[in-house]
Amino acid sequence: MTAPSTPGPAGVPSTPARTGKVRAPLGPTVTIATFPDYALAQRVVDYLSDNEFPVERTAIIGTDLRLVERVLGRLTIARAALAGAASGAWFGLLIGLLIALFASTSWGWVILVAVVIGAAWGAVFGAIAHAMTGGRRDFASASRLEAAQYAVAVHADYADQARQLLTKLNWQASQSAQSADSGE
């Protein structure tokens, strides 16, 4: 059985399409570099891939994980009702479309009435649900998992090859930085 494919930070796809093959564990690994953000670690793996390195022997490992909850704003009964109305309208649209498939009357009116009824019920339930919290959570928020740093690890048998390529990348970056400084 294959492991589920999960996206990386910000929804970045983690792997190409799965073929259904069972993947062997990565085995003993060596960390070749650490980075403060995912984009830099991803850039290194991309560079390795561009240089014919067997990237299937590579992993990007997020360490020092923490849950960050960003507060989006104050949640009032009116905002809860508005959010409920929006959810209810979407549900009403779905039900309206299903009913309209089999309706012999004007399908536009069926959908419109279903959306309005869904929005009304959603607003009522949203307001009631918020009122029942008793003010214990009067804010809206979004949560995400963040890592303090990202390590690029490769199978131990390929560590020297990866380090050589990474040294070449660092040398190219320092040469371009020096030429940019001297050109000013």
Which class best fits the helix and strand makeup? alpha+beta
Quaternary state of the chains:
single chain
Q: What low-confidence regions span 5 or more consecutive residues with pLDDT below 50?
A: 1-7
The end-to-end span amounts to 57 Å
Quick one: biggest sheet?
Answer: 3 strands, antiparallel
- Measured as a percent range, the helix fraction is 40-55%
- The percent range for strand residues is 15-25%
What is the gyration radius calculated from CA atoms? 26 Å
Topology order in helix (H) and strand (E) letters: EHEHHEH
Task: Please tell me about this protein's structure.
It is elongated and about 70 Å long. Among the domains are: 27-42 and 58-69 and 147-157, no CATH class; 76-137, no CATH class. The model is unreliable at 1-7 (pLDDT under 50). Helix 2 runs antiparallel to helix 3. The chain has four helices and three strands, in the order E-H-E-H-H-E-H. With 184 residues, the chain is of the alpha+beta class. Strands 1-3-2 form a three-stranded antiparallel beta sheet.
Topology overview:
Blueprint: E1 29-35, H1 38-50, E2 58-74, H2 77-102, H3 107-132, E3 139-155, H4 159-182
Antiparallel strand pairs: 1-3, 2-3
Helix pairs in contact: 2-3
In short:
This protein is α+β, with helices and mostly antiparallel strands and 184 residues long. The chain is built from 4 helices and 3 strands. The longest helix has 26 residues, at 77-102.
